[in-house]
Design goal:
The protein has helices at about 5-10, 55-70, 100-105, and strands at about 30-35, 40-45, 80-90, 90-95. The protein is α+β, with helices and mostly antiparallel strands.
Length: about 100
Amino acid sequence: MRLEEAIAMVRSNGYRVTKPRPKAVKDRVGPTFAAEFADGTITRLSTFTSLAALDVGRGVRIAQAAWQSRHRHQKTKPPRIVAAHFEQDGKRLATYTPAQLKEAA
């Protein structure tokens, strides 16, 4: 029996002849958006945004969603954000004032 015939027979029985490709490992995490709300709650979430053009609006929206998730029982809107910044690997990439955050939202 030739090799081609053997491979065809193995395939016809449902066996794999080649090894599966290894799954890609996601080793990159976007920058972290840290926000402090007027009630003292602090949220820190990784965001999917470019380092060259940080998306503050996205950071504000996910911070508000995290606040609402933690305070489900209150059924109120999240308080205003008094301080926020993007960071990555322990370095601050950008810091925002409440006025800048209000414009971004």
